[in-house]
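Predict the assembly for these two chains.
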Amino acid sequence: MNSLTTYLFIAALLFSLGIFGVFQRRSLIGMLIAIELMLNAASINFMAFNRFLAPDPIVGQIYTLFIMGIAAAEAAIALSIIVALFRRLRSINIERAQELRG
Amino acid sequence: MTSSWFQDPTLLAAALAALLPFVTFALIMIFTRPYPKLSAAISIAAVSVSLVCAIFLLSSHWHLEKPIQYAAKWIISGDIYIPFGFLLDQLSLVMLTIVAVISFLVQVYSLGYMAGDPGFARYYAFQSLFAWAMMTMSIAPTMLQFYVFWELVGLASYLLIGFYYEKFSASEAGKKAFVMTRFGDIAFFLGLLLVLFNFGNLNILDMNSVDVTARMSPALITLSAILIFGGVAGKSAQFPLLTWLPDAMEGPTPVSALLHSATMVAAGVYMFARIFPFFSHSAAAMNTFLAIGTITMLLASTMAMVTRDIKQVWAYSTVSQLGFMVMGLAAGSYFAGIFHLTTHAGFKALLFLCSGVFIHEFETNDFFEMGKYGGRGLKVPMVCMTVAAAALSGLPPLSGFFSKEAIMGGLAGLHNPVWLWAGLLGAFLTAYYSFRLIFSILFPRKIEKTHQGEHGGHGHGHDGGHHHVGIYWVMAWPLIILASITLVLGFFHTPLENFLVGHHGGAEAHGGHHAWLLYVAVGLALSGVGLAWLEFGRKGASQVGFVEKIEPMSRLFANRWYIDHFYRRFLDYFIYGIVSNLFTRNDRRVIDGGIDGICRATVGSGWALSFLQSGMLQYNLMVMFAVLALVALYFFF
């Protein structure tokens, strides 16, 4: 039970949930949350590989810390984009942002 | 290498003579265009240096044994080697001198004629360009170099004929001259290519040697000779390309003088003489040329009999004299053709320069009007023009007499007497139409004094009488020089002949039948003058020529035998109607249609594909994900 496969399985499940969320949600906030899920799935992978395979126990954790930092920055940028979009469209529904329709 | 340039005076002189006018042209066009006086001074200085060089070359090589050739590599392509340089032999030396003399005199004369013209500097630039092209052409060692400068002569004459380009008829005439001569030049170039591919060489000396017969079949020689003659026909206004020359009268009169005597039109005959041995390999070609020369000569004489424009008369007479030269050359008497070219250069330049004075004075081209307004009052040009017209008619002891006799002698040597009779008829007509003009000016039916008086007041000198007289004399001096050349040149017949053909050639020209021919020719010329006297000169003469009494004939002549009409029709129906119509359709349908089709296809496919662009972020993401997944699958399995 306490093996690498379990963690990888959980990470894959989390990633799939993230993908599904990005495709399915129509609200931009929902999409942002789904993307965070995907990032977390990647973090879990790093930690799992670090725990079971890597000789140096520190590297994977540093990576995870980085990912958290980047996720924070990304969330800030994404939220500002969403706010800008909201100002323009008075909505954060992705179906309203279709100006590039052919 | 550089030191030898200065050690060899011949090369230096040739290079100076040939290149200075070009330098002048560039100088005037680039730097001195705003300064007309300076431009004219530079141009005349350059052409006088050329003249000095030419005379130096001629006199220092008077006893030339064999041709001198200077050549530098120009084009090497495979086996074909084409040099660029100078070829000095008897013929090119004589031609160089003629060109230099006439250019010099015409440029001096133009000082008066063109005074005050807004395009004065431009005019001198073109004159220099013309002189450069013509001189370098005269001493070209290969036919390719010859061809290049031949075309430059064409360009320069186009520029000068269309000098008054604001005038529609002038620009049209320039265009006509350019396009019509181009027709001949296409044939010329094809002929040259034939020679180049079959003989492998365009060196004039090689083409004139007997090797040609060994390397090319007789049929091929005939074909290429006739094609090359196309160039002569275009430049020298031979039948059927003769109609551009009368229109070329639109240019300033000194230009006509230059064009008609020593340069443009003489270039054709000069080319004939240049590769005369090559042409004479083919008897069939020579007979064709003889026929063309004869037809041209007679057609042009008839046209000259009805026109009232002084310049047109001399233009037609040029065409007919060129016909004479071609006849002489084609009849095999090399010297006669060149001698006539030389003498003609003198007296034709004189005729045009004299007419220029009249035109300048009376501001009309109609010689009946000139007579009416007292044309005979201008003593110097009147006397000079009479001398030149007498030379043109072949009256002794003027230069034209000797050269025309030489041609008649050559024609008499042929088996077929038709050519001789045609030549004599031409001589009669020449005398008739030249003296028709002279008598019309000399003995007008009534003189209108009023114009003469008023004319002194409104004359061309804007700053009064003194200026006017000065201009008159600037214009008169070249006339006097040319008239004296015309008077004495005939007596250089024998030395010139010895120089050009060598001592052995003397016997063939003076055949046994020369004596009676002499009297017949002079008699015919005199009767031509007499007829002109009866109709135009004597007191109470009707001043209506015998041709003008026969309505259809005069209409035929005045319309130039409908040659221009034929060309017009041909252009309208064949070129514009069929050929250019087809090209237009090709343009519209195939080319335009093709481009439009491509554009429409692009727009259409873009429109079709734009349905894929829904604008939904998530569909884009899905496609991206699918593609990445597929790529991953492809790489990992």
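Residues 450-467, 503-512 of chain B have pLDDT under 50 and may be disordered. Chain B is about 75% helix and 5% strand.
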